[in-house]
Design brief:
The protein is an all-alpha fold. The protein is about 70% helix and about 0% strand. It binds fe (ii) ion (2 copies).
Length: about 140
């Protein structure tokens, strides 16, 4: 898995809408950084990464949810419900992290919390967004 920089080339996670892909790559990057920080010794670095992950996740979900609403995506409610579930799982994960108990379940957390959601939910709105005129290449310029 790619743990270098989030804005690097296409990955398996990409759904074909650049702005969303950049956010997914950033979330994956943070999770991979969390993995390498827990490989050594759990501590301040891991907590800081989890804080950033919580913020970036809130922003990312808000972006997807606004787009779904504005573009009248039929699956919006189910998707929102799933985001609520994921936000709760992340919160639980952060609480477990306070007890230094996170390294073991991290791989399966990445798989179910990010990769499975993108595959089962985010991919479903792509055709609708594109049909509604979303520019798949529009994205913020890198810093
Ligand atoms: Fe989503
Ligand atoms: Fe997403």
């Amino acid at each position: 898995m790619n743990s270098t920089h989030p804005n690097q080339g296409p990955g398996e996670l990409d759904i074909g809408i650049a702005e969303i892909d950049l956010q997914h790559r950033h979330l994956l990057y943070l999770l991979e950084r969390l993995r390498s920080s827990t490989d050594k010794q759990y501590g301040y670095a891991a907590n800081a990464i989890l804080d950033e992950l919580a913020i970036e996740t809130r922003i990312h979900f808000a972006v997807e949810e606004s787009l779904m609403r504005l573009l009248s995506f039929p699956g919006t409610e189910a998707h929102l419900e799933e985001h609520r579930k994921l936000a709760g799982q992340l919160e639980k994960f952060r609480q477990r992290a306070q007890d230094f108990d996170v390294a073991d379940g991290l791989s399966s957390f990445i798989q179910t919390w990010l990769i499975d959601h993108v595959d089962s939910y985010d991919r479903k709105f792509v055709a609708h967004f594109l049909a509604m005129g979303v520019d798949p290449l529009a994205a913020p310029k890198p810093d």
